[in-house]
Amino acid sequence: MSDNGNVAVLGFGTMGAGIAQVCALAGREVVVLEESEERLEDGRQRLEAFLGEGVRREKVMEEERDETLARVRGTTEVGDLAGSGVVIEAVVEDLETKRALLPVVADVVGEGAIMATNTSALSVTELAATVPRPERFGGLHFFNPAPLMKLVEVVAAVQTSEETLDFLESFAKEIGKEPVRTKDRPGFLVNRLLMPYLNQVVQAYDDGLATAEDMDVALEGGLGYPMGGLKLLDLIGLDVHLYATSAAYEQTHDPHLAPPPLLSRMVDAGYLGRKSGRGFHDYSDGNGGRS
Amino acid sequence: MGSGIAITVARAGHEVVVRDISQERVDEGLAQVKQLLDRSVERGRLDAERRDEALASTSGTTEIEALAGCDVVIEAIFEDEALKAETFGQLDEICGPEALFHTNTSTLSVTGIAAGSTHPERVVGTHYANPAPLVDLVEVTRGRLTSDEALRRSVAFVEGLGKRVVFTKDSPGFILNYFLVPFENDCIRALEAGMGTVESIDKAVTLGLGYPMGTFRLLDIVGLDIHKAVAVSLYQQLRDPRLALPPLVDRMISANHLGRKTGKGFYEYE
User: Fold this and answer.
1) What whole-number distance in Å separates Cα of residue B263 and Cα of residue B256?
2) Which of these CATH numbers, 3.40.640.10, 3.50.50.60, 3.30.1950.10, 3.40.50.720, describes A6-183?
3) Which residue of A169, A193, A202, A227 is the best one to mutate when testing the B interface, meaning the one whose CB has the most B CBs within 10 A?
C-alpha cells in the first residue's frame, strides 16, 4: 500500500463533488477527473456552493472553506492522477463507462494504489476484475449528500483483500465517516433494506391502502421515519429508484425487488418526483408537496 | 397497550374503567398506569395536578358488567380474533345500543372481530401507535360492516384525545405493522446472510436511513416472542415470504433470548 495522502476522485457530479469535499476537508490533496472543462467547472461550482452553504450555517469556517477549495484540483487529463495513493470512482452509473475508465486509471496510478468505487447498483466484483491486482479494489459507498451523511458502506468484492478492507475502513474514519462493512450483493446493506420497502409502499398506495398523505403521516408519526415512503421516493426521484430496483431485480429475481407497475407508469408519464414538480405529491408552485 | 390507552383517554378528561380477567392483572395494570404517569411528571411532561386527576378518573374491575354505562369500549386484549369477537358478543348484552366498540388490534381483521357482535356496524378499528401516551397517531379502520355514523363518532372521539387520525383499509397490519414487520425480518435475514453484524446493521438503519432506533434495538424492546406472534399472524393472512419468520428468531426464542425482558436478545443487558 502506498497511501501518500493524495486522493483521486473520478467524476465531479453530485457524488464526486461531495466525496472530494469530504476528503479535502479532512486535509487530503484531491485531484478530480472529468471528461470536459465544462463539467469540471460545474463540479467546481457544486463544491463552492456546498461549502458556501456550510459557511452560511456556521458549520465550516471561511478559512477552512478556502483551504479546502485550494486542496481540490480538477483535470481532464488522466495522466494528472499519477501519484495518487487512493482512487475513488464516482462517474455515471453505467457499467461500460466504468469498465472503460478503471483500467486506464489503474495504469496511471500503478499497482500500489488502493482503488474504490462509489457504485450503488453495479457489481463491485465485476469492476474489480477490470484492474490489475483486484485485491486492492473495493466499494466505498457514500450516501447523498456525502458531506452530511455519516454512513459509508465498505464493500467487499469477491477479490478484495482483508488489508484493503481495513484500509478503506480506516480511511473512512479518517475523513469523519462511520464505516460499516458489507458484502458485494445487490443493494449492499442500506439499499437492500430500503428498496423492498419502497416497492411495497408504491404497491400499497396503488392498492388503495390509504391516501398518500395518510401513508406518509403514519410512517413519520407512528414509526418515527424522517420522511414517509412516498415523500422519500419523490425526493430520490422515481426514475432513480426504478433504475436501482430493476438492477437489483435482474441480479436476484426476488419479486420484492421487482418494480411495481405503477412506478414504471409514473416514470413513463414524467412524474419523477420533486425534480419534475410532481410525483406521488404535487410540488408545483404554491403547492408545497400536497398529494 | 391497555394501560397506555387508559392513560391517553383519562388525560383527555374521560372517566375510564379498565377491565381485566383477574384482580392481579387489574392491580398490575393500575400500578403501571401510576408508574407511567409518575414518570411523565418526573420528566416535566405533566404537572402533578393533572396526574392526580387522571389517576382519580381511572378505575379497575374484573367484572365485564361494570362496563355497562360506557359510551366507548376499547378492546386491547391478546391478539386472538375469536377471543376479541367473543368479547364484543358479550358486550352486546351489557352495553347500550349507542356504545361504540373499538378494537386496538394491530394485525387482525376488524371485520372478523366485528362479526362477533350482533351490531357489527358499531365496531371500528382504532390502532394506537406505541407508546400510546407519547405517539399522537391512531390508525382508524372501517370494517366492511362499519356504519358511517359509527366511523364519524369514532373519529371525533379519537381526535378529541389529541390524536392525528390516518384512515386505512381493513387489511393485515394496516399501515404501521404492514411496513415495519417485513422490514424487521429483512434486517434479521441480512444478519443471517452475513451482510453485517447486529451493530453494523443497526448503524445502517439509523445513520443510513435516519430511523430513530436500530432494528435490533427495537426488536429487543418489543420482545422476540411478540415479534414472532405478529409476523406469524401477518404471514398466515398474506403469505408473503418477507413476513415469514426468519429461523434465527425461533432459535433465539428457544434459547430464551427474548430481548430486554430476559436480559439478552440481539444485545446483552445488565
Assistant:
1) 9
2) 3.40.50.720
3) A193
CB-CB neighbours of B109 under 10 Å: 21
Q: Does A208 touch chain B (CB under 8 A)?
A: yes
The yes-or-no answer on residue B65 being catalytic is no
**Spatial CA neighbour of B61 closest among B49, B73, B52:** B73
Mark which residues 192-221 of B lie under 8 Å from A by CB: 193-196, 200-201, 203-205, 207-213
Looking at B138, B168, B198, the residue that finishes a domain is B168
Question: What fold, for A191-276?
Answer: N-(1-d-carboxylethyl)-l-norvaline Dehydrogenase; domain 2 (1.10.1040)
Three-class DSSP category at B118: coil
pLDDT over 70 (residue B130): yes
On average, the pLDDT of chain A sits at 95
pTM of the model: 0.94
Do B203 and B103 belong to one domain? no
Active site residue A287: no
Are the beta carbons of B195 and A224 separated by less than 8 Å?
Answer: no
Dist. CA B222–CA B228, nearest whole Å: 10
Instruction: Enumerate the H helices of chain A as residue ranges.
Output: 14-25, 37-56, 62-71, 95-109, 124-128, 162-174, 190-206, 212-223, 229-236, 238-252, 261-268
From A227, A224, A261, select the one nearest A246 (Cα to Cα).
A261
Q: How far apart are CA A201 and CA A229, in angstroms?
A: 6
Shortest Cα–Cα distance, B137 to chain A (Å): 6
Look at residue B270 and tell me if it is in a domain.
Answer: no
Which residue is it, cell 444485545?
B267
CA distance linking residue A8 with residue A73, whole number of Å: 10
The verdict on B70 and B100 lying in the same domain is yes
Q: Which of B177, B185, B233, B257 is catalytic?
A: B177
The residue range of the domain holding B145 is: 2-168
- Beta strands, E only, B48-122: 58-61, 72-75, 100-103
Confidence of residue A285 (pLDDT cuts 50, 70, 90): confident
By CA distance, what is B179's nearest residue in A? A197
**Mean pLDDT over each residue of chain B, to the nearest integer:** 96
